[in-house]
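Exercise 3.2. Students should predict the tertiary structure of the chain below and write it as structure tokens, then compare their answer with the key that follows.

Predict this chain's 3D structure.
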Amino acid sequence: MARISDAPAGDAAAGDAAADAAAAGDARAEAPESANRASDEAAAQRAAYWPMPIARAVPAAALALAITFSADHSAQFGLTVFGIFGIVAGLVLGAMAWLRLADSRVRPYFLIQAAVTLVAGVVALLVRTGHASSSEVRFLFLVLTIFAAVTGFLELYSGVRSRRRFVASGDWIAGGLITVIAALAFVLIPPDYRQNYAGPDQVKRVLDASVVAVGSLGAWAAITAVFLVIAGLSAKWGTQAGTVAPASGAAESSHPNGSSHPAESENRA
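Answer key:
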């Protein structure tokens, strides 16, 4: 007496296996398209973004050169050059953020950063003309510390918030950390620091807090300018390390019971 296995069940299993194979094939086909879309998006971001760090590097480089080639490192000089830098850098950052970050979610944070930089520059110039020398030192430290802390945090937050969604997120994180470290340096310098010393020519000189603060400001400006130029050229040439997460595609699927085979009929006597 012959016994034959259930043919409809075998046909259903074969159909499920074919559907799973088709879904896996579609997912594999969509993966290159998703990668291409991510690559095109990253290229578009780099093309739109690269002039921004180059433009930001110009006032920073000017500040570094002004401090480096000046023998005057007094608090009044520091407030003057920082005030001019703050106004110019704030206007440049605001304009570039408005024009170049139109499709980015972090544009409002850069606009706030530009406003803080501009206000800090104006305050520095006002303080320079209205207070005595002893007060200028304390106001120099206050203005520099608040400026570096607020703008550094905003840029760092912008980088973290846009991580893997914008090619410059890594640059913003690094730039924010550089400025935050500068804020910590300004906090650690005692405003009343003063030390007398004699140079190699045996001429007596004075190293005070204003000299250290202005020198630190120049060092930060030089490092920032070089970093921004490298970031801008890297974005222009397409070598920036930041990557954009590819668009989510269909996930690969597999049959829950592993590989399926058509049912075979058995005839038994």
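Discussion points: Residues 1-7, 247-269 have pLDDT under 50 and may be disordered. Strands lie at 194-198, 204-208.
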